[in-house]
Amino acid sequence: MLDQDPQKASLTASEFRSDWTVDEVEALLRFPLLDLVGRANEIHRRHHDAEDIQKASLLSIKTGGCPEDCAYCPQSAHHKEVDLDKEKLMNPKHVVSLAKRAQQAGAERFCMGAAWRRVRDGQEFDNVLEMVRGVNDLGMEACVTLGMLEPHQAQALAEAGLKAYNHNLDTSPEFYGEIIGTRTYQDRLETLAHCRDAGLDLCCGGIIGMGESWRDRASMLQVLAGFDPHPESVPINALIATKGTPLEHREKVQAFDLLRMVATARILMPKTRVRLSAGRSDFSAAEQALCFLAGANSVFYGDVLLTAPNAGTGDDRDMFAALGSLSAT
Ligand code: SAM
Ligand code: DTB
Ligand code: SF4
User: Which positions are annotated as binding [4Fe-4S] cluster (predicted)?
Assistant: First the structure.
């Protein structure tokens, strides 16, 4: 059990749990920061090679015009003031050629995102299956995020060689209604269950910086850590406040707030890949290095995320070189 007095707090429970309470998670998030990071680092090193930071590249295979009303998202058709060109589903061969280019630049995983509410059977889904087969044939981990899925679609993706399905909770069940009105939390949980049933890895995380409280952050992490088994990867996004969305005036996330989220996610889910996701380019190499110490072990890699700029590959090369060993000269 976790002692909830932060001055005396100690972690003595078995490391793999799916029964964390929101109070326990909130106590962890509020720990003295250096103690929290130290504990997270200890758990991280027990379960992972500290040098192993996965590079995942992203591609928007169908952009904009999405019928959902997610308040943070530049791709929602509800936010008419956003400056974004809509694009229809890309050609599978072109997508695979871009995956190959990402692989040559050092990416191990390729995640393809479509601005859809849900997957529909037919030519477009068949094209996505062809993309998955092509990416898989390159020897990369293939991941897609396509909105809601039916069980047979999850099965078809698994048969095409998909490694993971990304479907985020985005925030806590309590705050969710402030952010999204067109689909429910329960809808999300059902899609995630269909993915699990098809044997897909779950890539499931959320966003901070949307106006949620620490209690909400704890509640979202509690839902994530409540999956048994835990999601194989958990992206932690810092809101990119995009002009023309309802959240355009939200303040930037503080680096130490992101650090608390990463460290707590690592403690709750010891084996999961915790990914520094959207918003990473706002943090210095030193701030990111603290997150890696606290257990982050994956990043989105490449000059763009889906529609927004990412940390540049040049900067990332410099950062990873600086985090490696010093050469003799
Ligand atoms: N339409 C699909 C869906 O929502 O399931 C897939 C694409 S959607 C862009 C994938 C995720 O990106 C969202 O769930 C959200 O967590 C994240 N995201 C989108 N816009 C963001 C932003 N402006 N800042 C941070 N994260 C964002
Ligand atoms: C995730 O959690 N973050 C990625 C990925 N999964 C699909 C998307 C971030 C999107 C940031 C805003 C944009 O590029 O449009
Ligand atoms: Fe559509 Fe996904 Fe953006 Fe929501 S997050 S508006 S579902 S693309």
Answer: 66, 70, 73
- Annotated catalytic residue: which of 109, 111, 217, 280? 111
Report whether residue 235 contacts ligand 2, using a CB cutoff of 6 Å.
Answer: yes
| 70 given a catalytic annotation | yes
Beta strands at 233-238 and 206-208: parallel, antiparallel or unpaired = parallel
Task: Please give the distance, rounded to the nearest whole angstrom, from the Cα atom of residue 239 to the centre of ligand 2.
Answer: 10
Chain CA centroid to CA 58, Å: 11
Return d(Cα 245, Cα 249) in angstroms, integer. 9
Contact 264, 40 (CB under 8 A): yes
Say if residue 70 carries a ligand binding annotation.
yes
Could you give all domains of the chain from N- to C-terminal order, each with its CATH number? 55-321 (3.20.20.70)
pLDDT digits 0-9 by tens, 274-315: 999 999 999 999 999 999 999 999 999 999 999 999 999 999
In ligand 2, which atom is closest to the CA atom of 74? Answer: 15
Q: Is the CB of 113 under 6 A from ligand 1?
A: yes
In the annotation, is 275 catalytic? yes
Q: Are strands 109-114 and 54-62 parallel, antiparallel or unpaired?
A: parallel
Is 195 a known active-site residue? no
Give the integer Cα–Cα distance in Å for 127 and 120: 12
Q: In 198-306, which ranges are continuous DSSP H helix?
A: 214-226, 255-268, 285-293
- CA-CA distance, 239 to 277, in Å (whole number)? 10
Length of the chain: 329
pLDDT tens digits for range 133-181 = 999 999 999 999 999 999 999 999 999 999 999 999 999 999 999 999 9
